Amino acid sequence: MTTASDFDVLYRALDAEFGALGELEPRSVLRDWMTAGDRSTPVRGVVARWFGFLATEGGELLGARDVYGVIDEATGAAVTFLSHTWVAPHARRSGWGTKLRRAAVGAVSSWVKGRGGRPPQTFAEMGHRDPNDVASSTRLDAYARAGFRAFDPAGLPYAQPDFSGGDRPVPLLAIVDGDAGDPQVATLALCVHRTWLPGAAIDAIVDHVRGARETPRTVDLNDPACLRVRAQPHYPATWWR
Predict the structure, then answer these.
(1) Is 95:25 a contact under the CB 8 Å cutoff?
(2) pLDDT tens for each residue of 202-221
(3) How many whole angstroms separate alpha carbon 206 and alpha carbon 234?
(4) Apex CA 125: angle with CA 120 and CA 130, to 5°?
């Protein structure tokens, strides 16, 4: 994505879905990422790039997605950090979400290869399963069908930073593509937020990630461990809103 008009369409779509939840970066932040291209983060040797995608058919907007590619150039470790996705209600369960995800994964894989990195692991943040929120189950079920699993919050209590710059992170599931994953991909993904948030907004989360067991287990996205009520005890109580 390179044009300002396409960016505006993407941001409006994502903002309508995630803005009120406090789960979307400010417009100015993502606009800076779009224009910056490859970008060094405050973490030495870690470089990142943002990509945006639109799905259209016959001039109609059917979906939008953004993603970060992150690489540690010292080690070659890399991550495809799936950020946000939106599919128009009438287009859901018709394959558009999968097409957007594959486009994002493909773009980051090509970028990482061009920088000499190892094949990236795909990582995403997802809300915990909540029986009172049908949408939470719909989203997790879609990722489960695609082969994603979650790090058990008992072993890796992940959260998204407070995008207001405060000290109220948003507890989320850290999910990865495949049966096994390196929990430190979560730390690598968090590097992108250090480009615009104060370190204090992220340090507490990184401490939790680094304090995880060496190999925390991954669980099926239908596992009870993914339930919001099961996950809450593993996070600071003040993080829940």
Answers:
(1) no
(2) 887 887 776 665 667 889 99
(3) 15
(4) 145
pLDDT digits (tens, 9 = 90+) for 99-132: 999 999 999 999 999 999 999 999 999 999 998 8
Domain boundaries defined on the chain: 4-239
Give the burial class of 134: count Cβ atoms within 10 A of its Cβ; 0-12 exposed, 13-18 middle, 19 or more buried: exposed
Tell me if residue 22 falls in helix, strand or coil: coil
Q: Alpha-carbon distance 196 to 184, whole Å?
A: 21
The CA-based angle 100-165-199, given to 5 degrees, is 95
The token duo for 155 is 């072993």
Whole-angstrom CA distances from 76 to 47, 82, 127 are: 11, 19, 29
| H-helix or E-strand spanning residue 174 | strand 173-177
Strand partners, 64: 54, 86
3-state secondary structure of 107: helix
Count other C-beta atoms under 10 Å from residue 91's C-beta: 16
Beta strand extents in 33-120 (DSSP E only): 39-40, 46-57, 60-72, 78-87
Q: Write the single-letter amino acid at 51.
A: F
Name the CATH superfamily, with its identifier, for domain 4-239: Gcn5-related N-acetyltransferase (GNAT) (3.40.630.30)
